Amino acid sequence: AMDGAPPPSSPAGLSAYVAVSQLLGLTLLATTGAWLGRYRGGVAWHSPLQFNAHPLCMVLGMVFLQGDALLVYRVFRHEAKRSTKALHALLHGLALVIALVGIIAVFESHRAKGIPDMYSLHSWCGMATFVLYLLQWFLGCGFFLFPGASFSLREWYKPQHIFFGIVLFILSITSCLLGITEMLLFKISDSYSHFVPEGILANTLGVLLVAFGLVVGYMLTREEWKRPPLSEELALSMDFKTLTGEESPGG
């Protein structure tokens, strides 16, 4: 700061939880890669291994990147709100693109092998989650990132956006758990009950998914860890109330 004041610090414990979340997220990706590489032959697009791009993309996009996007407002607490919004939208958009690649992979793989589509509970939950996630992203950009929506509309939609953001994160992890179980039953149904290494590794991936979700969820629901409004945001809110006589539009 120009006045010599020390830079603002993060609340106690927040940095440790951020570090744990990122460690869990990277471990998720490494475990997924180890499972696909060691037991499923790896990942290749124009080959019988194309299907394996699906679980990798879904864990990367719909879990890891989505979780990080949700944490943006906790981690970047003292940056300009506009920049934080843009990063939040960018990470969600990147997650959507990666998830779309994963969806294309599974449909093309099924078509090449003559396997029917969209009959399992995993496929229903997964597709519904993706479509709702895409809708949530478009609505979020329309209400918060681009100009046009009134303050009153933003204030009305903001709680819905936050609620459905957490719900979609939970649904994404649930869909991944269903997918892991389905894949194991298809590939190693005869030996799964004998605690074979592939089954143990895939179950470990499922436990890591739940752990990542719990850590991110805990960080999102800690009231004292919410991003505080910056001084210029408070000044803007006061000016708005003075000029209009309405309640402040808030952060």
UniProtKB/TrEMBL annotation:
Single GO cellular component term: chromaffin granule membrane
| Cofactor field | heme b
Alphabetized GO MF terms? metal ion binding; oxidoreductase activity
Every copy of the Cytochrome b561 domain together lies at 20-221
- Pfam families, alphabetized: Cytochrom_B561 (PF03188)
**Membrane-traversing stretches:** 12-36, 56-76, 88-107, 127-149, 161-180, 200-220
What keywords appear on the UniProt entry? Cytoplasmic vesicle, Electron transport, Heme, Iron, Membrane, Metal-binding, Translocase, Transmembrane, Transmembrane helix, Transport
Q: Which superkingdom is the protein from?
A: Eukaryota
Q: Which Gene3D superfamilies match?
A: 1.20.120.1770
- How does the entry describe its membrane topology? Multi-pass membrane protein
Q: Where in the cell is it found?
A: Cytoplasmic vesicle, Secretory vesicle, Chromaffin granule membrane
Q: Which reactions does this protein catalyse? A: monodehydro-L-ascorbate radical(out) + L-ascorbate(in) = monodehydro-L-ascorbate radical(in) + L-ascorbate(out)
Give the protein's biological function. Answer: Transmembrane reductase that uses ascorbate as an electron donor in the cytoplasm and transfers electrons across membranes to reduce monodehydro-L-ascorbate radical in the lumen of secretory vesicles. It is therefore involved the regeneration and homeostasis within secretory vesicles of ascorbate which in turn provides reducing equivalents needed to support the activity of intravesicular enzymes.
Which protein, by its recorded name, is this?
Transmembrane ascorbate-dependent reductase CYB561
- State the organism named in the record: Sitta europaea (Eurasian nuthatch)
Gene name for this UniProt entry: Cyb561
